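Researcher: Quick sanity check before group meeting.
Model: Go ahead. Protein one:
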Amino acid sequence: MIGKLGLILECDVGGPDELVFKCLVRRLSPETEVITRSLGNKPAIFERGPDVAKALVETDKCDLVMIVWDLKPLWEKAGSCKTEAKTLRLNLDGLPAATKSRVRLLCLTYELETWLLADDAAVRDYLSKEAHPCTWQVSKPASYQDAKAQLNRVFSEFRGRRYEDFSEAIKVASKWTSTTKLRKIPSFKRFCVLLTGNKAADFQNGADVCGALRQDARNLGR
């Protein structure tokens, strides 16, 4: 078991990635303490990520640090996770060997919202109203290069507005009842392996443990 996990994320502080990843750690590995460092954008991940990882290992005494980023922010042309990971590993080469050995990379293809699309039952549960049940289904969630755009379309159809990532990513994620569908996404499966050592890891806690995180999202006023 990982006693203390450091997560380096490209979102803003209190952003959707931070909330969802904290929720996942609470549900998959309840005994793990998690420390997040949200760097704001993808360039910062590549420029500052190695130094932040060093501090998490050497100062905060994390047993493992994950550097997490999206393959395709909307303003950039997607390359490949393999190519981007190679670049980031080169940036990590200056770290002491003992520190570097505790750092792992997690590239999300194409973005966190792909994980939300993967469990279409959770999306339906969140969007459904008694008078207007959501009937949307998805068969190949990883095929959407712009998962947020797909969620915008679904939300527009069943809620009459766009998807709000800051407040709603954590709310949709809280509807997950198992990891069965999520594990079909390679990046989620890798996250499970890094966190628990088990690619088929399932939730040990219910979504109620993430209630405070949902409140955090509301307090941001987004």
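Researcher: Fine. The other one?
Model: Protein two, sequence then structure:
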Amino acid sequence: MPQLSIVIPVYRGQSTLPALFKEIEPLTNEKTTADGQHFVVSEVILVHDCGPDGSDRTIEELVRTYPFVRPVWLS
């Protein structure tokens, strides 16, 4: 079964990331597409781009909440 990685560049994501993860979380369990292909999301990589909001704190909270989150911190 294909395992998918989702890469999300994060800039000013403080207010949108929590809702996005509520939509992504169900995909971390095996799903089937309309044409019968099975898949699962195995990781979500959040690439923090040092935006002016509190995205860094939101990413840290998501890492604590969801075991499939992998943060990448750009300097």
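Researcher: One line on it for the slide.
Model: Helices lie at 17-24, 55-65.
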